[in-house]
Amino acid sequence: MKSIYDVIKKPIFTEKGMDLKEKENKIIIEVNIKANKHETKEALEDIFKVKVQKVATVKAKGKMRRFGRSIGWRPDRKKAIITLKKGEKLDFIEGV
């Protein structure tokens, strides 16, 4: 990747993600499909100034969608489940 700002796309807010955040101090973000775990960890630590313990990534293939008679595909995406070290906190809604 060229820049650390190209790695992180957006946070993912779901019920499962909020439960992981409260119980296990994990956050879920969408990352660039070409980014690896090391780049994701470096980008989070540099941008948000938090200590990352572990990074797990999941690739999700795009789903097929129909538009009338034509068929299209949603884009593939990659999610990262970030485990923060004890005592670290990152809240996208309230700010850093």
For the structure shown, list the relevant keywords.
96 residues; alpha+beta; Alpha-Beta Plaits
Task: Write up this protein.
The chain has 96 residues and is of the alpha+beta class. The chain has a single domain (4-84), classed as Alpha-Beta Plaits (2-Layer Sandwich). It has 2 helices and 6 strands; from the N terminus they run βαβαββββ. The chain has helices at residues 15-24, 37-48, and strands spanning 8-11, 26-31, 52-60, 64-67, 70-73, 77-84. A 4-stranded antiparallel beta sheet has the order 1-2-6-3. A two-stranded antiparallel sheet has the order 4-5. Strand 4 (64-67) and strand 5 (70-73) form a beta hairpin. The protein is globular, with a radius of gyration of 15 Å. The mean pLDDT is 91.
What's the order of the H and E elements?
A: EHEHEEEE
Q: Which class best fits the helix and strand makeup?
A: alpha+beta
Question: How much helix is in the residues?
Answer: 10-25%
Q: Which word captures the global form?
A: globular
Radius of gyration computed on alpha carbons: 15 Å
How would you summarize what this structure contains?
The protein is α+β, with helices and mostly antiparallel strands and about 100 residues long.
